[in-house]
Amino acid sequence: MSIDIVSLLISFGLLLVAMSVHECAHGWVAYKLGDTTAKNSGRLTLNPLAHIDPVGTVILPLILFITTRGQFVFGAAKPVPINYMALKNPKRDIIWIGLSGPLANLLFALVLSLLWRLVPVYPITDFIFGYLISINAILGVFNLVPIPPLDGSRIVMGVLPGKLAYRYASVEPYGFMIVIVLIALGMFNIMVEPMVRFILSWLVPAA
User: Fold this and answer.
1) Under a CB-based contact definition with an 8 Å cutoff, are residues 154 and 95 in contact?
2) What are phi and psi of 155, to 5 degrees?
3) Which among 7, 5, 12, 3 is positioned nearest to 135, based on CA atoms?
4) Cβ neighbours of 159 (radius 10 Å)
5) At what angle do helices 3-32 and 123-142 cross, to 10 degrees?
6) How many CA atoms lie within 13 A of 17 on its CB side?
7) Fewer CB within 10 Å: N-end or C-end of the chain?
8) For residues 149 and 172, is the Cβ–Cβ distance under 8 A?
9) CA-to-CA dists, residue 95 to 70, 119, 129, 155, 182, angstroms
10) How far, in Å, CA of 114 to CA of 111, rounded?
11) Tens of pLDDT along 32-88?
12) Radius of gyration of the chain from its Cα atoms, rounded to whole angstroms
């Protein structure tokens, strides 16, 4: 098995961990706010198998890994089902649900950063901690971009008046393609990378 394949498998496994944290957080917060849909669908779990989406979780990361020669891997899990009408205060609660995934990733990255400083220094532990912190920082920041269906759009929908929120939400069927195009055009570097670099400058121990 070549080094590239091993690197892909390890990166993919760590990406699944980060995405599972993200999606489980959405479901847990929705459950606490009155919606049991995610719980009834078996999504309140850190088991990656419950969150895998064939396109976003498998095909997209594979394409990115190949096209960037292993320099960048990103993906999306199967969205957690939310029944907004079951929420105690839908307009307010959609904001908390939207924030929960990115905040869970950033908190997870912080915990990993603290643990990294306590474990012996080995190449494999440095790779695992470094990659997990990086991918959680990327997921946390990237998902705050206000393009449906990313989490940032949920926050915007919760803030906008009803009619504007409805019009904004109507973009969602095209959102995934918009995100792909923006990544292909290098907009990721402009919108996300500066904040990710700032976060990593605090979380990644100095050599």
Assistant:
1) yes
2) -65, -45
3) 12
4) 13
5) 50
6) 17
7) C
8) yes
9) 34, 37, 30, 4, 24
10) 5
11) 999 999 999 999 999 999 999 888 888 877 777 677 666 666 677 888 999 989 999
12) 17
Angle between helices 151-159 and 162-169 (to 10 degrees): 160
With 0-12 / 13-18 / 19 or more C-beta atoms within 10 angstroms meaning exposed / middle / buried, residue 110 is middle
Q: Residue 206's pLDDT is what?
A: 73
Decide: 57 and 123 in contact? Cβ < 8 Å.
Answer: no
Tell the residue number behind the tokens 């919606």, with chain if given.
Answer: 35
pLDDT tens, residue by residue, 113-126: 999 999 988 888 99
Residue whose tokens read 């489980």: 24
**pTM (2 d.p.):** 0.91
Q: Which two tokens stand for residue 158?
A: 């919760």
Burial of 194 (0-12, 13-18, 19+ CB in 10 A): exposed
Please give the C-alpha separations between residue 79 and each of 106, 170, 185, in angstroms, as whole numbers: 19, 17, 25
Name the active-site residue from 19, 23, 90, 155. 23
Active-site residue, 23 included = yes
